[in-house]
Amino acid sequence: MIKKVLFCIPPFPNRYGLPTHPHTGIGYLSQSLEVNGIESRVVDFRLGNGYEILRRTIEEFKPDLFGVTVMTYYHNLAYEIVGFLKQFDKPIAVGGPHVSTLKEVAVKESGADYGFMNEAEISLVEFCKGKPLKQIDGLIYRQNKKLKINQPMIIEELDLIPFPKYKNVDMSQYTRKRVPIISSRGCPYQCIFCPISTVMGKRYRFRSAENIFSELKYWYDIGYRDFDFQDDNFTVNKERVYRLFDLIEKAKMKDLFMQCGNGIRADLSTEELLKRMKDVGFKAIAFGVETFDSEVLVRVKKGETNKQIEKAVKMALKVGLEVSLFFIVGLPGETTKTFKKSIDFALKYPISTATFYNLIPFPGTELFKWVTDNGLFILQPNNYLNTIAHLEFVPIFETKDFTAEERKKALVLGSWVNMELKRRDMTRKLGGLAIAFLLSWLIYKTFLTKVIFRMIKIGPIKRLINFVLLKLKLRLNL
Q: What is the topology classification, in CATH, of domain 4-148?
């Protein structure tokens, strides 16, 4: 019987500042353990915690089991933590996206004793309570020195899982008073670049409106107003979200600042839906455009057209939502000519931001197989996933129609466009006055940009900037 679990969240290099909120996945696991009488603590390396903090926590808490979450990005850093933990002679389990994708390979590489695939809220509790290993779905374990893999664990009834309350972490350490919400899991779509179906499954499952509302109400009653819906497909079931909106309005929740930061699908958006989102407190949404070229959209199996995307953007702006767009540079079939269509579309409307991501082939995706089969890699996976995954202007592969040099130029141009959109957005929000134009130009067009970005790497300054920006948004009713 395991009574105490210590979770470790590895650092995540090449990101500005500290995380805005606690780790949602670990939050779910911790809450599931708590309601079953099992204690847990968290050491979050993303907050600047190091091995001395980890050692001290181990000595004070005396855990029976270590749990290390492993992202595919920088999975070597998670492996290093596993190596450090071995000296304490306690069982070590790994989980997270990388384990769900590579399964026994990730467990073997990490040196951990156990691995948890897919969704572990139920399987981890069963493990801690001593259920026979071969009967625990989603578990990878050793038997006679060989790794055994049980069948996957995909939870159908999400309402049965308690939502995170983060009682084992200090919420004030994070840079915003923001609560992440996950109201659904799984993805029925087939985008060739996305690993989510490997991790969470293709079957779309969702929490009821009443269940989501209970989570919002819990946080609202203790003073929280900022919520980020992190679903990959929040609006797939419109009846559910309309019911949630009704509950929010009936409870008269005011001053909410909600957003869909991961993006919603354009083809599922209607003006009625977007207006209702705005009315109940959603301030910002994002759309995953990927590319504005119709042929490339088909090739990557996006499942929507550029006409649907443009219509959704116009509707969202019309109802007063703050709109961000996500693009991917270098998709199969893309050229400098097709990329220009994405640039032109990004600059066409008064949106807030347009992020142009460097295309990363994730193991387990159709894209990864395509790049591998065609011998297109410039950098090998263990290299780009562990050392330069977030360097903005370093292409991972190239094609004859879109060379590495052309991709670098495209990534630089995309970064410039995003800065220009931010400048325009600030000018609009400050009233379009000359002083607003000058201020936005100084921030986004001069050497001050580099200075500011370096400053916000410092935790206290990042928190101060976020606080001021939030107050400014509320003051201007943005």
A: Rossmann fold (3.40.50)
